[in-house]
Amino acid sequence: MAHTDHTETTMDPLEALYRRWLIDLWHGDFAVAEEILAPGFVGHWPTFDVHGPQETAEQIRQSYEYFDDIKVTLDAGPVVGDGMVAARWTFHGAYRGGIPGTTAPPGTRVAFAGQDLFRAADGRFTEYWVVSDGLGMMTALGAVGA
């Protein structure tokens, strides 16, 4: 008898939406952005904002310019309540080079953690805030003294 996984059917819709963000979109399925992000979506990164699914997918795609073998793991959550989703993740990748000021050679393995907070409406994410350990990443890449 074949094993049937009922996780998707019993999962909270916002939890499933977040998993599509983290597992599908951040692992290179950029078309998912159009499905899970509202047309008026605003993503707040620490030093800039992006608007809409296409800009968001492009921002994520840029990570692939600097890193190979990207894997993002879910460490805690997602916690869902009142139209909001929160989670903690860890980004793992092999540095390809190209970030100004870094001294680490290509192939250097890097991992750094972060937290996501989303607002959702009508089955899509409408707003996003992220906080991540950019200083830890830049230290691992030799751009900041340890």
Number of strands: 6
User: What count of helical segments does DSSP give?
Assistant: 5
- Roughly how many Å apart are the termini? 55 Å
**Strand order of the biggest β-sheet:** 2-1-6-5-4-3
Uncertain parts: 1-8
Estimate percent helicity: 25-40%
Description of the structure:
With 146 residues, the protein is an alpha+beta fold. The protein contains five helices and six strands; from the N terminus they run H-H-H-E-E-H-E-E-E-E-H. The chain has helices spanning 7-10, 13-24, 32-36, 52-66, 134-140; strands spanning 37-45, 48-51, 67-81, 84-95, 109-121, 124-132.
Topology overview:
Blueprint: H1 7-10, H2 13-24, H3 32-36, E1 37-45, E2 48-51, H4 52-66, E3 67-81, E4 84-95, E5 109-121, E6 124-132, H5 134-140
Parallel strand pairs: 1-6
Antiparallel strand pairs: 1-2, 3-4, 4-5, 5-6
Short description:
With 146 residues, this protein is α+β, with helices and mostly antiparallel strands. The chain is built from 5 helices and 6 strands; from the N terminus they run H-H-H-E-E-H-E-E-E-E-H.
Q: Tags for this entry?
A:
single chain; 146 residues; alpha+beta; 5 helices; 6 strands; elongated
